[in-house]
Amino acid sequence: MSTAVAARGEFPLRDAVECIPRQGLPNFIAKVQAGETVRVAYLGGSITAAPGWRVQSRQWLQERYPDATVNEIHAAIGGTGSDLGVFRLQRDALQHQPDLLFVEFAVNDGGAAPERIHQSMEGIVRQTWASNPKTDICFVYTLTQAMLPDLQSGKMPRAASAMEDLADHYSIPSILFGVEVARLESAGKLIFKAPKPKDIDSEPMVFSTDGVHPHVETGHRLYTEAIARSWPKFTAADDAPQTHALIAPLREDNWERAKMVAINPEMLTGNWTKLPADHALAKRFRRNMPELYQADAPGATLAFTFEGTHAALFDVLGPDGGQVRVQIDGDEVTRNRIDGYCTYHRMATLTIGSKLAPGRHSVEIQLTPQRLDKREILFERNRADFDAKPDKYKQHTWYASSLMLIGDLEE
After folding, report:
1. If you placed Cys at 76, which of 48, 301, 304, 411 could pair as Cys (CB 3.0 to 4.6 Å)?
2. What pTM was estimated for this model as a whole?
3. pLDDT band at 11, cuts 50/70/90?
């Protein structure tokens, strides 16, 4: 453990090992070696959403196994962690029947409590093997500049260390992408954060511009090379194709029951519009939000009842966002659907109730008539956009896509 971490008395960090093969990827490797058609799902955040290691690794697998056909399932959303991934897993990945699932949330889970990481990551594992016990899983751990000190002291960052508890429990192979990155940075052969050079092949290598998102030509290539170095270890670890057993959980309160639930029009009262397929927002978010409803006037209400322990809404924040009043079991709070970043629209999560007592819960969410001081809400650096384009901010609306439940909707 690094000195700083030890002083804080935080979660113990694992030793930084690039690849821990455990039981390998027996079903996937058997299929590609036999020249079959396979599907590889990439569940993660913005680093996986970029056309980098996701695209490069699929290409590498296709080149390594030319007789097979390697197809990609793109299941990444920027700025999101495993706490959203576990809810959208079925819709974005499992329904497409992957043979291999890469899970990448170590950066976006960086600030989450280890216990919460355990809950959501275990939910991902158990949902996957409940859907198809022959789907192989591989955890991959990306990094930020802030994680370099732990790696250079020989330790995994905290989120990856927490995920390793699940990897051990379920014998899931893992790859720590940052080991070689940290070594090159220490040797003066890599600059983690700097403006992108005109000659991307210049030395020392520039990893990223922002300290988080690798350049496709450099940082992402290092990530792909880590997979290539790990692959012989996976192959050596493989036994015959097998069914992955759903053993007793590491945590009884894991999020295996997490799910996305479509909004039923009967849940809606007041003025709502289901956005048509050619609407700009519907087109932009179609891959992750097949249906998008817009509250057209104050008083528009979404109401439902469920049995379970957690509820949230997958929705959209934006410059035209208003305020909603959220009621659950009689308790009430208000939430703005615009924040300091909102010069544009982006997918978001509206938390309704978490860590609820098991049982039946009633929810009502209503667009209020409150007019927000949007210029004041925006970060100072974004207020020039408000001043230049005030019409973009005039509307006070709300866009809702689907329910996120740990539990079941009551009919």
Report:
1. 48
2. 0.92
3. confident
